[in-house]
Specification:
Blueprint: E1 4-9, H1 12-28, E2 34-39, H2 42-45, H3 65-73, E3 78-82, E4 94-99, E5 107-111, E6 125-128, H4 131-140, E7 145-148, H5 153-162, E8 166-172, H6 173-178, E9 187-190, E10 193-199, E11 213-218, H7 222-229, H8 234-249, E12 258-265, E13 268-275, E14 283-289, H9 292-305
Parallel strand pairs: 1-2, 1-3, 6-7, 6-8
Antiparallel strand pairs: 3-11, 4-11, 5-8, 5-10, 9-10, 12-13, 13-14
Helix pairs in contact: 8-9
Amino acid sequence: MKSIILGTRGSALALAQVELTAKALNTAFPGVPVERRIFVTRGDQKLDLSLIKANEAGGKGLFTKELEDALLNGSIDVAVHSLKDLPGHNPPGLSVTAVLQRAPTADVLITKTPLKLRELPEGATVGTSSVRRARQLNWLRPDLQICEWRGNVQTRLRKLTEQAEVAGIILAQAGLERLGYSFAEGAMEVEGRRYFVTSLGDDLFPAIGQGAIALQSRADRPEVTAVLQEIDHRETHLTIRAERELQRLLSGDCALPVGVRTTLADGVLKMRAILFGEQREPVQAAAEGASPETVAAEVFAHLQVS
């Protein structure tokens, strides 16, 4: 290929992810120029659209459709996505051809004072834009008040400071790290303000695909497929194949209230999942094996009969 054109959203996190992709491509193909094209998605425009209320269409395609349209019309070669934003079904002719190495999958609680989730005052208000996080928080702490919380990281942190009634917000560890935020000591400084950061890795199940960068391309472009396969991270791809197969079986989009933990060790995939329905109590299931699709199917079957 003479050049590779990457499509991306224009958020700070999306741009950080496209730079990681460009770096991987430049390492694998040092003589091939990499271009970037920025798109504004419906999710970027509709900041008043609720991602928690089911009657507002959830998150299906909100942050991906414009990039996928560009792939289909040939104006870009690769769409770079946060994998957790992708619906379970690719549009006809498109596929997740490669993924970069997965970052940590944990969610983190960010507060103005050093409090863990179980230490938040009774009735405290917590902000999130994720139905998965909201349902798990309500299950673990029924007393908490969950409020819709959208915007980029700096906007969310600024709102946290300004709104005294809000005790904390939930964000993904991977996103914070990719944006360059440092919180190794359990705290971070942003715009002269100090925030406290606590991992929720043992409390909340991550989203399907959380921490992974998906590289989507057209199935009828073998030259692009060959390029992307050179930077594909095999271990990550196996785990996300299992997670996306579960998502497909559940007929879910990225707003489905399901969380998964998937690991790969010595060729064995292990998956645990939690799914919320109309009742407050969720169902959980686990399976392990060598085939991503088989593991996902077993977890799905257990979720359906539980």
